[in-house]
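Running this now, will post back.
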Amino acid sequence: MAEVDRDFAGQFMQGMRLTTAEVTYYMPDHPALLQTFLWQTQDVAPKFPRLLKFLDFWKCEIDAVIHTVRIAHRGLIAPTEWRFADIEARLN
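Update: finished.
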């Protein structure tokens, strides 16, 4: 029997979903200049233990100050979704 991918199995057994975090931050010497950092991982909502561990690491080890964090998560395995197009056009 074939071995199951660890990430694939985690989605079923542990309830893990693809989580994207957009971290908006600034450097202490340039507080008026906001920058963004995107980070993705498999995590469990709503507690997000891996994301919280990452943010704790950021606060301890990185000089940048976190301004805001936006989180989006979605299961990779979902029923197929169909959507019909409103128009049909031809390009020549």
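Helices lie at 6-13, 49-61. More later if anyone needs it.
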